[in-house]
Write a structure and sequence with these properties.
With about 180 residues, this protein is an alpha/beta fold. It has two domains: about 1-110, Nucleotidyltransferase, domain 5 (2-Layer Sandwich); about 120-165. It is about 45% helix and about 20% strand. The chain has five helices and five strands; from the N terminus they run βββαβαβααα. It has a five-stranded mixed β-sheet. Helix 2 links the parallel strand 4 and strand 5. It starts with a strand and ends in an 11-residue tail after the last helix.
């Protein structure tokens, strides 16, 4: 059974596509964006002898659903929204249609999964992003200082930059 999850901050719209290309895709409904409710829904499907294969779009809700389902032994893939095949003249986008489309396309094998970073990779990425932001702020401060003091004299500019180079440098060593 292929399960399309249209994930939002507060809820998840769920659609089910059973095996067989000609079978209908059914909209199950929406549940709160709560792992316990999602697990309960999936346990019910499993108890009926079904092997769920879940799919959802990568987005601001992150990879928590993916990791939680994988930890429970449930097949799940995350796909890039930009790689979802679209029909010409597609109807107005709704949560129901998105979930149904995900389930249908997953069943047809037309979706491409994205790389899911490990928790460590995500933490490292966040630290690098923080350092980038800090460097950008320092650069902007230097730029403003140069503009405010109207440093046209090369010697004055060099003295200012020597003073800046004495500032605390961000740590580029991560991990242990």
């Amino acid at each position: 059974m292929y399960i399309g999850l249209d994930v939002h901050k507060n809820f998840i719209a769920i659609a089910i596509a059973e095996e067989g290309q000609k079978r209908e895709v059914n909209f199950y409904g929406a549940i709160n964006n709560d792992m316990d409710q999602l697990h309960k829904f999936l346990r019910k499907q499993i108890s009926q002898g079904v092997e769920p294969r879940c799919v959802y779009k990568a987005g601001p809700c992150g990879y928590n659903i993916y990791r939680s389902l994988k930890d429970k032994g449930i097949d799940c893939v995350v796909i890039a929204p930009s790689l979802i095949p679209k029909k010409n003249g597609a109807k107005i986008k709704t949560d129901r249609r998105d979930a149904e489309s995900l389930a249908r396309l997953h069943r047809a094998g037309e979706l491409i999964a994205v790389y899911i970073p490990s928790m460590e990779d995500e933490a490292l990425r966040d630290m690098v992003q923080d350092d980038k932001k800090r460097v950008e702020r320092i650069f902007e401060q230097i730029k403003q200082l140069v503009e405010q003091t109207q440093l046209n004299d090369l010697n004055k500019s060099l003295q200012l930059l020597r003073g800046v180079s004495q500032l605390e440098k961000p740590s580029l060593h991560y991990g242990n």
